[in-house]
Amino acid sequence: MAQLKAMSPSSLLNLPFHVPKTDSLLFHDRIYCSRRQPSFLQLGARASELNGHMIAIDSYKVNLAHKNQAIQAVLSSDKETESSGAINTSGLRGKLNKVVLAYSGGLDTSVIVPWLRENYGCEVVCFTADVGQGIKELEGLEQKAKASGACQLVVKDLKEEFVRDYIFPCLRAGAIYERKYLLGTSMARPVIAKAMVDVAKEVGADAVSHGCTGKGNDQVRFELTFFALNPDLNVVAPWREWNIRGREDAIEYAKKHNVPVPVTKKSIYSRDRNLWHLSHEGDILEDPAIEPKKDMYMMTVDPVDAPNEPEYVEIGIVAGLPVSVNGKVFSPASLLSELNEIGGRHGVGRVDLVENRLVGMKSRGVYETPGGTILYAAVRELETLTLDREMIQVKDSLALKYAELVYAGRWFDPLRESMDSFMEKITETTTGSVTLKLYKGSVSVTGRESTYSLYSQDISSFESGQIYNQADAAGFINLYGLAMRIRAMKAREMQGKDI
């Protein structure tokens, strides 16, 4: 008989948020179950209608248990385990009981499923995280996982957690890697890996697996998170073990093991998309001297084709974190979605950079981060009012290290967590609003205000003020420049001796 274990991420804040209707939010309402189920289990109830309840299914009975948590479901059955061909003996490379696989439904992860079963004699639980990559990438996963031989499919909506607990802390810290990269992929990997560890505990898995290659940063980001949250889990990285070397090898392996090859038009680019950004790598981008093609971009219009009239947008900020757009309060994920749409139509947020990968090589990538670019500009600008010179300098210096830790996959490192506490403290008065003008790819600040502003018009005015006496500057300059005068006097003295 079918049994279901229900799992939930962190509870969401109970605020009167405005939530726009976007494709990235539609998937939240679905429950995916692997293998054969009675037709009535294909539930069509909207998540909003359930008012934060958790669905639990046992022996085909539906119960509602009140939890202030999001809906998630994992379904398995004895018959399904048998039909999936679970192997009780050791595989070619050893024996594992059950493996949770980071699953996208693409060619690579589709062939990893039978490869794990063949080489480790294990059941495979496919896990997919919705971090805002879009509804099209999430459709049909149940059928694909089933056809590949997985015993379960687990889908979690992590969009709010991703933005609230990972993106916003980086935004507050001002973390930017190597002057330009806003860390889109770097922030997404730990939230996905954390969810995998949670799922492994729920389903009783003794191992986790991912489809990252041995040349990139993502393998490090996934595995450091696994180490930090459950060091007892085994980690299987097929790309570091198998003999598959490319797409043709993978297709041949899939056919040999009766795994349907995903019929999709292969992109010439390697892309990664989430609610924060869309990255592009590969093909002509591997030559840093070649300009990207116009049709490569997907989140932003060409600035040349953007509206001829600028658009003004006001960002409301509380304690260093954005809360509203043009006076409307949004949930974290909804706020970012709104700004992605606004920034995208004005061609905002395109970055073309050559970065130093953690593994030592350089790589070129092109990133589209429309909403994130607007938010970074807003938060940084408000800090010019609320932080003094020393605070800004120290914060900026720590932001470099913060970004480096995130890029390197050390999200759960005590150092980053300690730095995050500092960032939270130093920005507690960064509250107010910033108005920006968006025009043909550019973001410019037109106004900023805060009740905690350290700016005083009376003191800063060129007109005479009561607090600042310009005559005092002479003594200040004499003391501030004393070391320079002494050095110059000593140099002149030494020159006289040489003569």
From TrEMBL:
InterPro entries, per the entry: Arginosuc_syn_C, Arginosuc_syn_N, Arginosuc_synth, Arginosuc_synth_CS, Arginosuc_synth_type_1_subfam, AS_cat/multimer_dom_body, Rossmann-like_a/b/a_fold
- In the Enzyme Commission scheme, what number(s) does this protein have? 6.3.4.5
The protein, known as: argininosuccinate synthase
Q: In which pathway does it act?
A: Amino-acid biosynthesis; L-arginine biosynthesis; L-arginine from L-ornithine and carbamoyl phosphate: step 2/3
Q: Where is the Arginosuccinate synthase C-terminal domain?
A: 269-486
Q: Name one GO molecular function term.
A: ATP binding
Note one Pfam family from the annotation.
Answer: Arginosuc_synth
Q: Which NCBIfam families does its entry note? A: argG, PRK00509.1
Name the keywords, alphabetized: Amino-acid biosynthesis, Arginine biosynthesis, ATP-binding, Ligase, Nucleotide-binding
Determine the domain of life of the protein's source: Eukaryota
Q: Could you give a single Gene Ontology term from the biological process aspect?
A: argininosuccinate metabolic process
Q: Cellular component GO terms, alphabetically?
A: cytoplasm
**Record's subunit section:** Homotetramer.
Q: What class of enzyme is it?
A: ligase
Pinpoint the Arginosuccinate synthase-like N-terminal domain residues.
Answer: 98-260
